[in-house]
Amino acid sequence: xxxxxxxxxxxxxxxxxxxxxxxxxxxxxxxxxxxxxxxxxxxxxxxxxxxxxxxxxxxxxxxxxxxxxxxxxxxxxxxxxxxxxxxxxxxxxxxxxxxxxxxxxxxxxxxxxxxxxxxxxxxxxxxxxxxxxxxxxxxxxxxxxxxxxxxxxxxxxxxxxxxxxxxxxxxxxxxxxxxxxxxxxxxxxxxxxxxxxxxxxxxxxxxxxxxxxxxxxxxxxxxxxxxxxxxxxxxxxxxxxxxxxxxxxxxxxxxxxxxxxxxxxxxxxxxxxxxxxxxxxxxxxxxxxxxxxxxxxxxxxxxxxxxxxxxxxxxxxxxxxxxxxxxxxxxxxxxxxxxxxxxxxxxxxxxxxxxxxxxxxxxxxxxxxxxxxxxxxxxxxxxxxxxxxxxxxxxxxxxxxxxxxxxxxxxxxxxxxxxxxxxxxxxxxxxxxxxxxxxxxxxxxxxxxxxxxxxxxxxxxxxxxxxxxxxxxxxxxxxxxxxxxxxxxxxxxxxxxxxxxxxxxxxxxxxxxxxxxxxxxxxxxxxxxxxxxxxxxxxxxxxxxxxxxxxxxxxxxxxxxxxxxxxxxxxxxxxxxxxxxxxxxxxxxxxxxxxxxxxxxxxxxxxxxxxxxxxxxxxxxxxxxxxxxxxxxxxxxxxxxxxxxxxxxxxxxxxxxxxxxxxxxxxxxxxxxxxxxxxxxxxxxxxxxxxxxxxxxxxxxxxxxxxxxxxxxxxxxxxxxxxxxxxxxxxxxxxxxxxxxxxxxxxxxxxxxxxxxxxxxxxxxxxxxxxxxxxxxxxxxxxxxxxxxxxxxxxxxxxx
Amino acid sequence: xxxxxxxxxxxxxxxxxxxxxxxxxxxxxxxxxxxxxxxxxxxxxxxxxxxxxxxxxxxxxxxxxxxxxxxxxxxxxxxxxxxxxxxxxxxxxxxxxxxxxxxxxxxxxxxxxxxxxxxxxxxxxxxxxxxxxxxxxxxxxxxxxxxxxxxxxxxxxxxxxxxxxxxxxxxxxxxxxxxxxxxxxxxxxxxxxxxxxxxxxxxxxxxxxxxxxxxxxxxxxxxxxxxxxxxxxxxxxxxxxxxxxxxxxxxxxxxxxxxxxxxxxxxxxxxxxxxxxxxxxxx
Lengths: 800, 283
Description:
CATH topology of the largest domain in chain B: Uridine Diphospho-n-acetylenolpyruvylglucosamine Reductase, domain 3
Radius of gyration of chain B: 19 Å
CATH architecture of the largest domain in chain B: 2-Layer Sandwich
Order of helices and strands of chain B: EHEHEEEHHHHHHEEHEEEEEEEHHH
Number of domains of chain B: 3
Number of strands of chain A: 29
Number of helices of chain A: 20
Number of domains of chain A: 3
Number of strands of chain B: 14
Distance between the termini of chain A: 47 Å
Helix content of chain B: 25-40%
Strand order of the largest sheet of chain B: 4-5-10-6-7
Shape of chain B: globular
Strand order of the largest sheet of chain A: 3-5-1-12-9-10-11
Distance between the termini of chain B: 56 Å
Number of helices of chain B: 12
CATH superfamily of the largest domain in chain A: Aldehyde oxidase/xanthine dehydrogenase, molybdopterin binding domain
Structural class of chain A: alpha+beta
Largest sheet of chain B: 5 strands, antiparallel
Strand content of chain B: 25-35%
Strand content of chain A: 15-25%
Oligomer: heterodimer
CATH class of the largest domain in chain A: Alpha Beta
């Protein structure tokens, strides 16, 4: 395979279009569509006594008002539980419109359809819903106490208890020379993409078919879900993801209530219907993530080697469990990171609360697991008075120990086996990049000026490219254009660029000739979706395999035309030629013409393929046995298990002795995602991930009060960091190819966000000499910590 | 997040504007719209009528002379911020304006609009209060001057009547031997301050502070102006400030933390204002 274009940091081909306002997002579609708005629960927990819509009927331009009573058949049934799991003994999902009970603020109760969104909101405001409020359950500790139940038929508010262990942890703890026990807290946050959710649906009554656009991370599965809900054959439903303004996990959840209701109403009314989520709705009606309370017991030896690790995690999954126990699985398995742990036991109790559902957000449980493990490493170092990097080094899996089996089951149901990596090399790179060894001198010099600075480090391993599969279709048309289609969706990743690079490298064509379509069921019907850092691994390899089929076919056809053995042929700049001899050859556009014998010509090019122009033996059929017309190929990539990327981050922070403000002075990332398709795109992913990580570490939290009201449901009060709050990110790469896939690549989408809270906590702890056990950390929280536990960690114990 | 129905009028003259305001039952003035439009979209405000004064050319003024800076109702933050004359006559204005939200908001939002909105965490009410400025209000009943100390009544509440249009604000010039400073702490750059201080320090012939005043934002229901001359001299400045204020807790900061910050910021602003006064004194 040519390496000219694969691995090049070419600029993203989608950017000129997106940056000049040429993108077509959901709200740009359906200008004449009717608009939907929703009456949503103002209460965290309540029984619906009565719904009175008469006030809304006076609004001119109102088209329809629907409550649960109006919903037919499967539309009225609970939404699907997407990922069943044996540990999820009490999975529950909500209804498209609340049936008799609401369990979080923002749950949809009434759907209003009107001429435009203004009128729909006017009408929604006039609907009167009478509620009998029920006791709210806010936070995992209230959930675990279970003084009140979120679902009457779920005892203890426990949806799932997930246990995994690798041996007798109690015995290992008892035998360990040192044991520490502590608690960690992580608050709620959310993906908060720039564009919220949105659905547009058009019913074609003549054809009996439905076309749905959704701002989703999975077009194919939305199609399947809508077909099932509306009782339509899948072939009569098309789903297209237009340009999507960010997803970060929240848009992998489906079908949303609105994704069922908007198409249903469009069919019923025979009119286009559109719903564009507004920011307030997104805060209370989409999904959140992160919240956990972790209880840790760790036993270790004098070198800091972990002999036993026992974690019990309370996980807040909100009011319903449509996405199953994926986050608990990911937290409890990826917690192990790059380390060899003597004996490990994890128990995750996944609890119902009367707050918004919790589903994967970039990182998807890993930031919590890494926070747990990395805080543990720092505790061990502090306890032993050892260097924090040294304690990590003592626990790393060696470069010669791959494949390394952690003895657990991962989120794809397969064994947690790391395929490749070089963790000591990563540690050496990150400590070099940040200047770990020279930091004590810097710190001392800063202290002499009355400044407080601190350094922190955190490591992670990320399972990427989970199955079951993705596919690719590649076709070279008679103009030489290469059309690549894959079923998974794009929400800003740069697929137009990296998939084109893969195809260009495999086919020997200029990258400009390659055109990529994603997330359109009309072009590719079999797909899973874009999540779990899987798109490059899954679709990238599928496209490469499809390209190899096309290439082989092109060489066969060209071989006949050139009277050469296909194995002697190569393709350069879109021309098939004898290897080493570019003086004569046949362009792929001509090969495309030859691949498709024609009866009728439409232009000079196609005239070449008609019956009186084509020569060849008249004893053979025009399309040889076993061949198909057209220069196209389709293939799928289905991995036996996930491939494991890794990375390490380090940061230097400064804390203000007077105001407790926290400033990140330097942020360094080293990262190994196997072979890089495009280093520029990977760095962009890392920068974006770190930005979200800084949000999670220092700014963002969902401020629910004790009654279950979200107090900061706007960008004024939910503090997503601005560019002014995000540090410059210094990066370095290591390339350890994955042996599991043809391209040797691993995923990179979530890497930037995963260890940020752990790194910042460690650095602030180092600067302040105060144990940091809860994130995010605001200046106000640090101010309080200074007053309540001054000097809890003596400076000599903090390590370096 | 779409506003409920409202009437809309776009007067061309001040007379038309105040007449429209008098005629409207529940009218609201629209100038920069940076606070009002979000309130409309969130349906937290539902005025029957918007009186859009953006076409009243006579309000689009910015004048500065030895007495002070007079800012017309249509002067955007950015215009005042960039005015070299305004900055020379009263340097505190530019210092404070740089903390008002972000450049795009300052391009549209107005100084007088911010004063009329009277957010207790906003910068300009504190500046007007500290400097002892005033606002000119016009209605069909006539024109009057409302001093800053009378203007701010409570959070988002002023002494202006429903039919009154604030047409200008006047910020007195910096007296001789007087320096100014502005300091605030916000969670993110450009956010409303958790706490902030505007300060003036006047030095005597020997360079010693003879008058020290500060206005605090974000820590009280209205801008809080304190004479800190004695506290500064006593060396108990931060403690004194903390004793005099009684801030509220919210999701961004506790009352304790705000109180603490007010003390720190007062010290910082005072030091900067003193240095500024000495620098202005220097030939």
